[in-house]
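Replying to the earlier thread about multi-chain prediction with a worked example.

Input:
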Amino acid sequence: MQEIIVIRLGERIIRDYRVNTHLGLVARALGCKELIFQGSEYKELRESVEKVNEHWGQGLKVRFSESIYGEAKKLKAKGFCIIHLTMYGKQITEKVKEIRKNKKICIILGGEKVPREYYELADYNISVANQPHSEIAALAIVLHEIFEGKELATKFKKGKIKIEPCEKGKKVVSK
Amino acid sequence: MQEIIVIRLGERIIRDYRVNTHLGLVARALGCKELIFQGSEYKELRESVEKVNEHWGQGLKVRFSESIYGEAKKLKAKGFCIIHLTMYGKQITEKVKEIRKNKKICIILGGEKVPREYYELADYNISVANQPHSEIAALAIVLHEIFEGKELATKFKKGKIKIEPCEKGKKVVSK
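Result:
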């Protein structure tokens, strides 16, 4: 599977706390390696993901950066293919075959006012449906397309518990 | 394409306002017909979706119901296949071929404490990755799997503007 790092633009980390928590859950559950938020360290958000890792198995690393454009440039220099998710971009289904060939991919999640430089830095400006959207859902579908569904079978190392899928009800077992 | 109605359980409509707004955007952008929230009418939430419909084209209908289990039962009686999304269920990839055969599908989005009766009512209890997840992302992936990606090309009727996808930058045109 490809190594994927997600960069989340936007300085409203606290105001967007719930959306950011969802992004952490998605990036982890769907097999990303790292999620970098813009801004200074926000302990509660990092710890919410670490707590899930501790219980459910080692997955995502979360960190914060004051120089988020610098992070994206550094990843590009290291050979990461840069995907910028924007409702104005080309459909993921049209470009995913090319994108999938890259072993290292950085996905940038924008917002309403993304500076022009990100559109330029990106190897691909990619949309999911060219409609107003949820960045949480857009990230999920793009990951699902890149990994071709294989991410749903990710094995999480360590952790204390896991689910045994069942037709009705709930079954959680210790690892 | 299948007719899909989404039911959102949970009485914290205002506290979960941002998550619910995301659910509205996803259900609309990915071609659902209706989204029913549990509880009494919350005008701001309904209007936020209607505003998107007005600008970007007719899509999702939003309504609220005080008797949400009754809504699910009514849909089942009308022949809808009931899918309950839960982290404890069977993987979507394992069941999607069967699910896809149904022309009318109701997707129930739960939360932390879903009453047992929903597990029983459901034709399928379905998970996305059997890991703690975002219900926004889980809904997106399940819709994408059921529609086989065709939902990304949905044509929205009426509306005032649309996007012309481009490699770099933004292009919005009047309809």
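Chain B touches chain A through 56 residues (CB under 8 Å).

Feel free to reuse this layout for your own posts.
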